[in-house]
Specification:
about 160 residues, alpha+beta, Immunoglobulin-like, 4-stranded antiparallel β-sheet, 4-stranded mixed β-sheet, about 35% helix
Length: about 160
Amino acid sequence: MKPWIFALIGLIIISCSGNAATKVKSENLAKAEARQEASDSLPVLTFDKKTHDFGTINEGDVVETAFSFTNTGSSDLTILDARGSCGCTVPEYPKDTPIKPGESKEIKVKFDSSNKPGNQTKTVTLTTNTERGREILRIKTVVTPDPIKEQQRQAARNQATN
């Protein structure tokens, strides 16, 4: 074969691959712009705080706090679900209620410290229609043991080891 044929084939391959790369870059850019436009139209959940420390409480106390939030996005926000990490942590929230852009609400969280002595950290997981889809709120406290219950727990531990 003649050397100019190799040069021609090489030139065709290079020119085709350049167009393909440009096309792929254009498609990726268009997809990224579409994702950005979609996320710009979603609701955004903005909290005043995401963690609350109750400090030291006594075993058996039931304490409550509120997490205030605002929809800072550009479409209605919906909280589809809110779950505590255990039965001792109970959230109260505006379930399946559209929250307009700029509107503020709150999520109340109760913690029952019965049979929960010591350091406690609990979470509430929210399922929402935001871009992230999930938000986590945290509560923490130190529970001072009830002296009578602590004696009962110690007796049960001693009995279990004997």
